[in-house]
Specification:
Radius of gyration: 20 Å
Strand order of the largest sheet: 3-4-2-1-5
Number of strands: 5
Structural class: alpha+beta
Strand content: 15-25%
Helix content: 25-40%
Shape: elongated
Largest sheet: 5 strands, mixed
Number of helices: 4
Length: about 130
């Protein structure tokens, strides 16, 4: 049993004790290939350990990244997983709030419908002074 299994989450992101050089991203035992493929596509490296029982699969940040770059990479993985309906937990010490905010802004911007040129622009916000006469 791993941390995702114990916490009943799909993904757990943390720095494993004794391994300060990489972040550890574990999925529940028997995780869907869709989830594993999303983690692969994000730039994380897949690892597996075959046992007499289950096959344990996890991901790690690539070797050679600074801790800041590791946090940024792992944080950028979160939003797409949440949108896809996965339950994700990250150690608060490993969350890069700026990277998450940038990812959220990019997502929101991509979701806005294009402006309709036939529509007039919206009125100025209240409290904004109008033109002087």
């Amino acid at each position: 049993m791993n941390l995702a299994d114990e916490n009943n989450t799909d993904v757990e992101i943390y720095r494993k004790a004794g391994h300060p050089d990489r972040l550890h991203i574990v999925t529940r035992t028997g995780a869907a290939e869709e989830l594993l493929a999303r983690l692969d596509a994000s730039g994380l490296e897949r690892r597996q350990e075959v046992t007499d029982g289950p096959v344990y699969t996890w991901h790690e940040t690539p070797e050679g990244l600074s801790q800041k770059a590791q946090r940024q990479l792992a944080t950028r993985v979160i939003l797409p997983l949440l949108i896809a309906g996965f339950d994700v937990n990250i150690d608060p010490d490993e969350l890069d709030v700026t990277a998450f905010a940038q990812n959220m802004l990019a997502h929101r911007t991509s979701q806005k419908p294009p402006a309709d040129p036939s529509q007039p622009p919206p009125p100025p916000a209240t409290g904004t002074p109008g033109p002087r006469r």
